[in-house]
Amino acid sequence: MTNNPNSHRATNVDSDIQHLLLQREQILLRVTQSRVGPGSSMTTPASLYITNIRVIYRIPKWAGLKADIIDINYQDIADVSLKRGILHTDIVLKTRFHTEDIVIPGIDKHTAEQADVFIRQGIRGEGLGQQSSNTQNYTYRTQGVEEQKQDPLDKLAKLADLKQKGAITDEEFQRLKTELLGNYKE
Fold it and tell me: Is 129 contained in some domain?
């Protein structure tokens, strides 16, 4: 499991997924199917990559030599649910364009809950670097918990960090900086 927003540069990302990632796309969470227990895969576990733009499901085939990849933008996900078992949890995605639900079996319970939070944020447009259709402002969340009210300089430092990491463009940074500083004028 990877929580680092810049983890798509890491070595634990499958090479075929690495090639699919867009320049400003960041992996928020990597979910891997368990190797033991119900719903598991001993030799070729499936992976789910949750990014700031979409969800990518990688299903290995032929002992890992090939893989099916399902790529779903957040606006195409109708719902996400968890089927909790005794040892593992299945993540179920209902999409607008697939006739059947997409089921990711055999996931650690805690990781499945994290994935559920990130996917729901993505559906609502509240994920890192996404523009919310409701507020037209950026909302940044960490581990599913909304940021506490902070000093404008702290918020400005976070915006600068997001710009440096490529999560927002220079134009977005300037707009957000102007809005932030405009809200704190006395």
Answer: no
Which residue, chain included where needed, has tokens 């005794």?
Answer: 86
- Could you tell me the pTM of the whole model? 0.60
Using alpha carbons, list the distances in angstroms from residue 128 to 21, 25, 61, 115.
16, 10, 32, 14
Give the span between the Cα atoms of 80 and 102, in whole angstroms.
10
Same domain, 56 and 14: yes
97 lies in some domain = yes
Strand bridging mode 66-73 / 54-61: antiparallel
Domain of residue 67, residue span:
7-124
Number of domains comprising the chain:
2
C-alpha 28/C-alpha 159 separation (Å) is: 17
Split at pLDDT 50, 70, 90, the class of 36 is low
Q: Does residue 157 come out as left (phi exceeding 0), alpha (psi in the -120 to 50 range) or beta?
A: alpha
Domain assignment present for residue 131? The answer is no
Is the CA virtual torsion 105, 109, 115, 116 positive or negative?
positive
Nearest CA to 130 out of 95, 164, 168 is that of 168
- Whole-number pLDDT of residue 184: 59
152 and 66: one domain? Answer: no
